[in-house]
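Pilot study result, target chain (477 residues):
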Amino acid sequence: MNGSPQDQPLFSECSDSLRQRIAEILRALQRREWRPKALPALIARLGEHEAKAAQRTPPSDALDQAAQALHECWALHRDLTPLEARHARNLPWLFFHPGDSPHLWASKDPHLAKAMLATVAEDGRPRRVLATFREFLRVWPADLPAFDSLLARLDAIVAALPSPAYDPWRERCARYRLLKSDGPTQVARLWVRSEQDYDSFVEAVLGPERHLANGNFWGEVAKAVSAELRTALRSGRIPLCRVFAWFADPQGSLRFSSWKRLLATAALEPFLNLNPSDETKRALAAFLCRTIGHPILHSSAWYDIDSQLRDVLLRWLVQTSFEDFFRLVDRTAGNPEHWVARRNFWYSYLKNNLIDDAWLILGPAASARLDPRGRANLNAGSLRRGAGTDSTHSALLLKIRGITIAEFSHNRKCRIWLRGNRAAPKLYEREYDYASLTDGCNEEIPHYGSQNYRWQARISSIIEEHTGIADPGRRGK
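Predicted structure:
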C-alpha cells in the first residue's frame, strides 16, 4: 500500500474521529499488524456515516442556483464537464428540483439525466452516489421517459461503489430490486411471505435510509401490498393478517393517512357485487372501522372515498349487527325457540337488502359475555340499567326507508316510529336508557301468535303501508 493514509479516497468526506480510526488501521496494515476485529466495525460505521451524510439536503437557494447553472451549461455545451464544482456537488438533488414543479425537472430530459448520472459516477464519491440513490427512491418518478434506463444506470453505479463498506447497499439492491421498475412488487411479495414485523422489515429493506418509508417508492410498495390483498381475498392463499400488519401499527392506527383510499378500495371493491364469507366480512369490517373509522361515526374520514365502497361496509355492518344481536340473545335471554320466528322474520328483510341501517345496543351482562377481542371489534351502544330493563337486556335499532324499529331481547314488544316522528331514537348513540327506546313510538306490537304469523303480519303491513315494501318472507306464498 503506497502513500499516506490521508491520501486514500475514503478520507475526503469522513468525520475526524472516523478518519483517525481509518488511519490507525491503514498504518497497522502497512506494518502488517493486522487486527481482524477492527475492520467489520469500521465498515459498518463507514456505511452509516455515508448514509447519514447523503441525507443532508443542500439549502434551497443553493439548489436554485445550481439548477440554473446546470441548465445553462447543458444548453451551451450539451456536456456537464464545464459545470462548476460547487454546482456539480449538488447534482443528486437536481434530478427532481424543484419538487413541486415536475415540468421543470432536469430528469425530464433523458439525455441530460444520463449526463448527470455519468457525472455522479465519474466523480466517484460514495456520498453523492448514495444521495442520488436516495432521491430516486424518495421521488420514484415512474412516468419519466427513460425511467427504466436511468434506474439500470444508477444500479450499475451503486454496484461499482468501492470498498466492502457498501456491500449492504449492493445486497439490498439485489435482493429487493430497489433500482428495478418492479422493485415495489418484489418488496410487497417478500413482505406477505415473511414473518418479520413492519419495523424490522423496513430496516431490512432500507437499512439506514428507513426514512424513505415516507417516500414514493414505499408508496408504490403499499399499492403492491393492496394488490396482494385483492389476491388474498380471491384465493385465500395469503394470510390477511400480513396485509393488516402492513397498513396498521400495533395500536391499530393507519400508518399513513395517504394509504386510506388504497386500503378501502382494495378491501371493498371486490365485493361491490359479491358477498365474502362471514369470517372475511367480519375481519375486514373490524379492521376498516379500526384503522379508517366507522363510516357513520367517523364520516369525515370517508369523505374522499367512493360512496359505493362506503355502502359495502355499511351493508356488512348492518349484517353483523343483526347477527350479533340474535347470537347474544341466544346466550342471555334463554328459550332459543322463542327467537326463531323473530330471527327468520327480520332475516328475510336483511337478505333482500331492505334494512338500510342497524345499530346494536348492549346491556352490561350481554357485553360481558363477549370475549375481549370481540368486544374491541364490536361497534355498539350501551343500554343503561334502570326502570324497565336490567343488565341482561339488549336492543336492536333498525332503519327501513325512514321508519325506525326497536327490537328488544327477552319478551319485549317491537316498537315502531314512523317517518317524521322526532321522538324516534337516533342510531349510533353511545348510550341509551329504556325510555329513549320506547317513548313516543307510533306502534307497539307484542310478539304473540308466531305460529299463525300474527305479529309478523301486523309489522309487515305497517312497513308496506309506509314504505311500499311488501313482506319478503311472504312472497310467492
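One observation from the pilot: DSSP finds 19 helices and seven strands in the chain. A full batch analysis is planned for the follow-on phase.
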